[in-house]
């Protein structure tokens, strides 16, 4: 597929992780190879144009933008469709034709209340009493109830999805206590099985594992070491896993964080129950998770329109695109590729090595607060590091202020989420998506909630004001009315997050 840029045309799409390098214009030069997902986040074989065009393929492809020309090639037909007027028009048509939304069964609790993940506080050392103390701390420090997500380390090993007895002597009682406090409870799981265990031998003998071409279980390397992998194309393998999760649900567990479904951990050409490439295995992991109302996914291929809460990959405790600088571009591109129910990672950054390296004297309280302000009006707000432990009184008050902002605008946010359930339109929307032709194609540092709220967080250290591109019309900022002709405005952010309400004439 070959085409040329139209006048003043910009393109968005492909990999969410590459969002900080978008949009791509005629003067840009970039090559992306998405024939296998090389990233730790979502990919759709889709690119959208501000001029109402889109590029689509059923499989991943390589695409080159260079000197005003676009060239794409892959193993499957690559379509170029035109004539849909705007970025919004291109998205709606592509969605209609290629990724119509499934029945959305995702729990609205994700949007009504925060998620509290235990990862940063406990990493691999999850323990019953520490989790209960964490939950009590949430309430004691004025934060609302929500969803407690117990991360990796709660089970004895991978594939034996039971609470380890040493750290969870009364797991059922812990779940009951969390429910009584007003929390839902989720557990981390992965599609892998620790070798040389009872579960490994069982699944090996039943041929429920991915096998090498020679017929032996594939032992693959991932971030936690070496494991066998369930053959996700085999219905009996999924039944085996679901049987374990059913037991956990009978104990009171509400849902699961489906981690580690990265395409690049798998090996092309391995023996499977049903032929599938590595991206398809990643997609099947997400498809399995879709049956649960409480779910979380981080990495997916071609899951636009799925009933999934999709998080940005683990962000660093930094101001650059690896950390806070990647939050808004990532969330905007999630929305433009059919993933509207997202979370901008854990507040302060979920990449635990980065967080540990920047703990103590290197911890940046201002960065943590700004993370919180950005998350406050994203679909899902997720804490992990306990803010009451890390922040002084003044900074903690800023966190509580951000929570008040979310509370104030929650009706609008929930209305927009419901609209996404029904129509598939993004919750977090690019400025160009809502206001085409007003020169905001490159604006990736502010966003709309639906068509009503403009949100302009601060992402730079030491800054208490920022430029906001204000579309034409009347806007309300606290007790001020601003009339814009489409120019930039310098607005003070000393009180925290800037939120402007569109005034309809």
Approximate strand percentage: 15-25%
Question: What's the CATH C level of the domain at 113-189 and 236-393?
Answer: Alpha Beta
Write out the CATH superfamily name of the domain at 113-189 and 236-393. Answer: Glycosidases
In percent, how helical is the residue content?
25-40%
- Count of helical regions: 14
Radius of gyration in whole Å, from Cα? 23 Å
Keywords:
505 residues, alpha+beta, TIM Barrel, six-stranded parallel sheet, six-stranded antiparallel sheet, 14 helices, 29% helix, globular
Q: In words, what does this structure look like?
A:
With 505 residues, this protein is an alpha+beta fold. Among the domains are: 1-100, no CATH class; 113-189 and 236-393, TIM Barrel. It is 29% helix and 22% strand. Helix 11 packs parallel to helix 13 (393-423). The relative contact order is 0.11. The mean pLDDT is 97.
